[in-house]
User: What shape does this take?
Amino acid sequence: MIEKTYYWILETNHCAYAFGVNNAGILENTYWGKRLESRIDYPDLPESNGWASFNGPTQVLQEEYPVYGGMCYHEPCLKITFEDGVRDIVLEFESEKTTNNELIISLRDLHYPLKVNLHYQTHSEYDLIERWVELVNLGKETITIERVFSALWHFPVGGEYFLSHLTGRWNDEFNLVREPLTPGVKVLESRRITSSHHHNPWFVIDDGKCTENNGNVWFGALAWSGNWKLTAEVTNFNTTRLGIGINDWDFVWQLKEGEKLSSPHAICGFSDKGHGEASRLLHNYIRDELVPHKKQIHKVLYNSWEATSFDVNESSQASLAKIAAEMGVELFVVDDGWFHHRTNDKAGLGDWWPDAEKFPHGLTPLVKKVNNLGMDFGLWIEPEMVNPDSDLYRKHPDWILHYPTRQPTLARNQMILNMARPDVQDYVLSKIDLLLSENNIAFIKWDMNRNVSEPGWPTAPGDQREIWVRYVEGLYKVWGDLRKNHPDVIWQSCSGGGGRADLGILNFADQIWVSDNTHAIDRLRIQYGFSQVFPASTMESWVTDADRGKIPLAFRFHVSMCGSLGVGGNLLQWSQAEIKEASLLISRYKKIRPVIQFGNQYRMSNYSMQYMSKDAEKGVLFVFQTDNYSNNSPIKIHLLGLNPELKYKVEGLLEILSGSEWMSRELTFPLLMYKSVLLEIAAC
Ligand code: DGJ
Assistant: This one.
């Protein structure tokens, strides 16, 4: 029995999270929701009781960090085998430590030398709480970790909840799904060594009464770029809980004497203002706290991939660069195809130096031409990969993930380098470091074009199944070192589009290439899903030749202007009229991009989007007609995020009205199919 009462209330500007040690010494959650007026308003810790002989106390109560032990039948956060074969964890509260905005609760196993530190960090102004867990082996015997989740959350007892999540596949990422949770466990995960196109490590739980702009939502995301798992469970006691962490699929970690293992960080929040506000809280945090270049405007870029594919050489790129510069592009990016023997996707990956035939004098002459045209130069790389037909693979066939007794499965004719190996890390670091040192490169697109197979590591120092974590740690190390050595370079994370879009990679990359699907209508849906988690500034979006001739250039530009604008069409085939129109749209984008990239984003019907500057002085509205108008009514929207007290002018409309009046008026847009509207909003 605990003598003293331990109860912690973590408060941010508008929300709060509370838990304590109950009468049986178990850490129990009591509250997650709106910040209450006074600390005495938070609920007391319920008594700890069991339920007949079929369920122990921890089945019934809201355990803060449930572990596998005793009568545990629900999804636990921690599963361990001790050296003597015991697979039962019994934690008791040991100590608390508070520093600035961080609380650390230390738990200790009653018998074994295992310490579990639960970390909570509040981000008050973002209304977010960051959580992670550290396991420490204080003994001599190895402890085998089989599952470690970063956090688990409980939702108010008795409610019926809906889970929103993002699902998809290559070329069709970020489809938003909202579904009711029913008794049992709903699992979302990645087993692919990246966070994946298929599910994203993000969730929103709502209580069924919620809309885009109103109602209670609890949300979170895992900052991890490898295998992850989310379990959303409705118990037979009608309680709902959700845990997230490293995927325990094929995972084992040997925690040796004195060692520590830290879980990835999870970020979570609550809002009573619906899904839209939940996204904006994450956007603010990602944009202002997470990404490397926080306040930097994203330049309008051109990317050569869809124009020249592997047919990259100095003259093809120089001709594209000339037109791009005329149009007002600020950053010219050479995509795949520039390096040693890369004439198609069968060769070259791993050999990161310019191809001698395509670039006889190296990249420098092209970089100079691009710079002389007034643009920055950017380059594509795919450092984690190797083709069988490469100097690197011929020299180091053992560097790939593989089992010696199995034929490696090729995907896009390539294999994955084992980023957990220090020699592989050194190689990748040295090659990319050299490229960046020898050339004036301002931007790198870091791609990864396949998922895992044969995840073997024959020479692993410990259990091979540690690969899932050690691979990601190796990736973070190399990328982190490159960032340190070249702090001004802007990085884009790409994995065949949005296969590695997560809060982990955004510690290193400022942008994400959201999808290889650049069809404007598909893209609207994909971007809508992406915006649930990520701010517009991180969303790279190109205008390409997809649907050229079918969908007007302005519509396609407006879609891409909803994020960081890029162009990816074959400019050599664009007419003078198209180039002129594109120039005007690019110059318009440059004017409004501070609001788009750094403002608050509001989602509306038919994928319409509104952005307001933080001071609510300036805004931008995009309206899209994606359907045949004859079958549909005009698009109707209400403006959002204006200051009710200020007066505003909305472009093209005569009246000057108060923010409050504009927000209550229904605006009607009778648009024909594939017509779009861009309107600026200004306080006056
Ligand atoms: C996949 C990316 O998503 C594309 O944009 C392009 O970079 C190709 N890889 C190049 O191989």
In short: The mean pLDDT is 97. The CA atoms of residues 624 and 676 lie 4 Å apart. The two ends are 65 Å apart (CA to CA). Residues 576-598 form the longest helix (23 residues).
